Amino acid sequence: MEQSLVVGCPCIADVKDCLTKVESLKYAQEACYNGTLIVKASSSGLDIGSCNWSITGPNGTIIYVSSSLCMSSTATSFDYKALQRSDVVLYSDFSSCNTTDKFEDGNNSSGTAASNFSNISDDAVDLEASFTLLNNDEYMEEIEKLDFICSCSMDSVKSRGSVLIPIGRLGIILQLLERFALGLESENMKVPIFVVSSVAEELMAFTNIIPEWLCKQRQDRLYSGQPLFTHVEMLKDGRLHLFPAIHSLELLTIWQEPCIVFCPHWSLRLGPVVHLLQRWCKDQNSLLVMEEEVDANLALLPFKPMAMKVLQCSFLSGIQLQQSHLLLKMLQPRYVLFPEVLKRHVTPLDSFDYYSENEKLHIPMVKNSELDITVEVAVQLRYTTLKQQDTNISRLKGELLMEQGRYLLSVGDNQVCSETETKPVLHLGRIDLNVLLVALQKMGMNVTVEEARGDDGLLTASLVHVLEPNKALIKVTDVQTLISTADENLASLISQAVCTNLDCI
Q1: Per-residue DSSP letters for 417-482?
Q2: How is this protein annotated for GO cellular component (predicted)?
């Protein structure tokens, strides 16, 4: 039997339990999960509160780059500096899926040097790329689009038509409200503006209580005592009205046309937009403003024949694909993952790979783990240089802990082995079979060698048969060496030959 969403049902308790686990963060604020991962958010510039994420663990840092904008009239600007020098970038900006551009280096799209962004030094980060990425051409084009929407809306209102805007991006709504206020004032018209949404009041209040999420120009208004947005004054003098639903009694009381209405939903299938479209679709003076990504023919099918004017506009929703190369040039990651849907746009390079939904992806190790050791312990360590590797090694007894995303070695008192302390001998390394055979022959042993292979034909072990002075078998693998013999003296001699082939600590 299906459960309904009513007070007291188990699903409500589950939802409340989930909400208790939600933790809110500020930009650049670090949150530690389980002592292993450090999670931090930084502004993506797309809209108020939108962000990119960095996840730092003991083996490196993963950056999640969502849809981002380099310049914004409302939100905090894109903080790309917080994403620099990461190990892996998970690129998740899908705004270029329908583009015909190619992601490639304009100078050398197929060279290895172009694919390894981490090879660029801090002083050699391309300043020209930074300037190109942050240029205001696209920003000015966006402003012109908003001005054009306002101009068309004023024309409709002057013709006694209404304007319907089913756009959900808060930044676009706030900028249009400012332009409508100026446009109506310049035309000396008193036309009500309605925002009909279940979260309308919360959204408008939200813009005034978190100024650190706003662009610098808006923050400067706060410090000078001015309202952050024009809608604050519009609400006070009755030019702007907020309602949770279209059937609100107060809305029906003050409703008048022509008017300008912001409401969900962009699909034209849900919410107040359905009722308002049915009301105005036959009015040739009214205007519907839609985003260009929506299939207008399909969306407007239930409302045809349409006499209402339709204006479709595309707004910036992410970084252009060609600019992605400039962005990565500044971020300088070791490895980049692009979504599979962008594969036809991205030129294959050495440090790239593609990911798909619900599929595991193996990423090459890009960084060795780091271990924190206290100075007191470090000065007590006595190192031995390994024969087969240019590595110093020391023995101690302690506990390996994880704290704030880093490995920490906790060592108790007198746990570091000193030079004079007697301790069990530990041998390590890999057996060189030729060296072992020479050592055995010097001890007067007659030996033969046999290779053991698996079903796949790969070498699994080397078998050394000792024929004289007594029988013995030495099985050498990558992980162990096994000596089998009934003669204890012979076993001791073979063990000595094996140990001389290994490092001892």
Answers
A1: PPSS------EES---HHHHHHHHHHTT-EEEEEEEE-TTS-EEEEEEEEEESS-EEEEE-SS-EE
A2: cytoplasm; nucleus
